[in-house]
């Protein structure tokens, strides 16, 4: 095996889902004549120790670890244990977290040989070709790569974004059957990137750090080809689009949607699907067209019902637009997951109470069914690749600023007090409504903790 790609995320109690990042890397590397496989710790329910044992048993020439902020600790634990156990192959890391901490990672973790920044498919292909001796290419020629040379850390120029997504093969579906068997839905992507400029989002930082269009889409033909194949292979007709921003604004917005819808109709494919978008892309005409071909639910990134907070987030959307989007979806009987962030460093207690009042009205007036939900993030997360990170750092608002442990800041006293109360209220209600589920979750977390502890002691 030329490379084994790892998702080091911890198992989830509520659901399992495919990691489209490593699945895309595997498919592309295999399409280029090399041999790649994936190991998803979350889906396979593997501990760090079990993952290390498996890697050593198959002994790939290279190990690739894809890390998000929430999975980085597991990722580094796997890497350190691999080296302690004598693994001598090359180790490469990539993903959102390493992209914004490449220099620090190479400085602090001698176990790691390379960092792939940004979109990884082409960079990883060229790196493997160089390392495996398939092509005579020096490391300094590989865009998007960070590495060491004679004790010095080298940061090559960023690789331009992939302009034509159709050059990428359909992602590998190693875990699709497990997802289906657990009564979850397959995820698929029709676009990459986001054309927005939200200050809290590191997606903007990832795609904005390289040349090229920050938002690109697959051709309707290629996209629907993959959906048709999945319907046939896995006997499913329900899909969740994993796109950060499925829709666009402007005069071409409807044409883009209509191309996709028309391709589904041309093939007479009866599907149902969910997507993610911003409030300013929700129009009756567009949503009606998508509903005609199976749209069932929209994940709507509203973020706030406080005008001041929306401006701080650089959403370039008003509260009125947010409410108008909810009304449109309600009238069309399309379910919604309304995503909001309750507080940032500037949120006052009264700002918080106003948000609570609006959310109460929304939940009781604009939700069509039990499939409509509020997705509430109590506190704004600060990621190093975001504009908010730069702002909070410049203004001295960060109480923790560490690439490894993450970033944090203080909320205003009464805001923090009320959010802590909210957390306690939620846990109490959850226990009263479903005590069995809560106790089962506690037992599972305890078992995972004990298994991890025993592997460390061993």
In short:
Its cofactor is [4Fe-4S] cluster. The protein is α/β, with parallel strands linked by helices.
Shape label: globular
Quickly count the domains: 4
The H-level CATH homologous superfamily of the largest domain, spelled out, is Aldolase class I
Label the CATH architecture of the largest domain.
Alpha-Beta Barrel
Distance between the termini: 28 Å
Radius of gyration: 23 Å
Question: Number of helical segments?
Answer: 18
Strand order of the largest sheet: 2-1-3-4-5-6-7
Structural class: alpha/beta
Task: Estimate the strand proportion.
Answer: 15-25%
> In terms of per-residue confidence, which ranges show pLDDT below 50 for 5 or more consecutive residues?
none
* Proportion in helices: 40-55%
Quickly name the level 1 CATH class of the largest domain. Alpha Beta
Average pLDDT score: 93
Beta strands, count: 17
Largest sheet data: 7 strands, mixed
> What is the CATH topology classification name of the largest domain?
TIM Barrel
């Amino acid at each position: 095996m030329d490379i084994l790609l790892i998702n080091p995320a911890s198992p989830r109690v509520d659901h399992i889902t495919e990691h489209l990042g490593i699945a895309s890397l595997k498919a592309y590397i295999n399409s280029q004549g090399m041999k790649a496989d994936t190991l998803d710790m979350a889906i396979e329910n593997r501990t760090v120790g079990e993952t290390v044992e498996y890697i050593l048993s198959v002994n790939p020439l290279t190990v690739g670890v894809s890390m998000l902020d929430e999975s980085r600790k597991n990722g580094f634990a796997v890497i350190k244990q691999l080296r302690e156990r004598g693994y001598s192959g090359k180790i490469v890391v990539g993903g959102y977290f390493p992209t914004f901490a490449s220099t620090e990672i190479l400085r602090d973790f001698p176990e790691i040989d390379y960092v792939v920044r940004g979109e990884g498919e082409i960079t990883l292909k060229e790196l493997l070709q160089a390392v495996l001796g398939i092509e005579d290419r020096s490391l300094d020629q590989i865009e998007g790569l960070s590495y060491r040379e004679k004790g010095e850390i080298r940061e090559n120029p960023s690789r331009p974004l992939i302009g034509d997504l159709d050059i990428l093969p359909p992602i590998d579906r190693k875990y699709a059957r497990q997802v289906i068997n657990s009564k979850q839905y397959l995820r698929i992507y029709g676009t990459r990137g986001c054309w927005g400029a939200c200050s809290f989002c590191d997606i903007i930082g990832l795609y904005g750090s390289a040349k090229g269009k920050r938002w690109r889409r697959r051709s309707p033909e290629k996209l629907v080809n993959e959906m048709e194949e999945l319907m046939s292979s896995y006997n499913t007709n329900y899909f969740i689009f994993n796109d950060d921003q499925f829709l666009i604004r402007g005069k071409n917005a409807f044409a883009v949607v209509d191309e996709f819808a028309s391709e589904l109709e041309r093939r007479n494919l009866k599907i149902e699907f969910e997507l993610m978008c911003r409030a300013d892309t929700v129009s009756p005409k567009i949503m009606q067209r998508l509903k005609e071909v199976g749209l069932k639910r929209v994940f709507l990134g509203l973020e706030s019902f406080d005008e001041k907070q929306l401006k701080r987030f650089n959403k370039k959307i008003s509260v009125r637009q947010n409410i108008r989007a909810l009304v449109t979806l309600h009238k069309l009987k399309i379910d919604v997951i309304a995503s909001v962030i309750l507080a940032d460093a500037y949120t006052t207690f009264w700002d918080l109470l106003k948000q609570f009042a609006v959310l109460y009205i929304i939940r009781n007036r604009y939700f069509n069914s039990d499939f409509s939900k509020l997705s509430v993030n109590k506190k704004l997360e600060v990621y190093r690749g975001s504009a908010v990170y730069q702002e909070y750092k410049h203004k001295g608002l960060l109480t923790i600023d560490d690439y490894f442990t993450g970033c944090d800041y203080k909320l205003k006293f009464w805001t923090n007090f009320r959010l802590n109360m909210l957390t306690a209220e939620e846990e109490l209600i959850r226990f009263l409504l479903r005590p069995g589920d809560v106790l089962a979750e506690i037992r599972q977390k305890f078992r995972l903790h004990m298994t991890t502890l025993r592997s460390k002691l061993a």
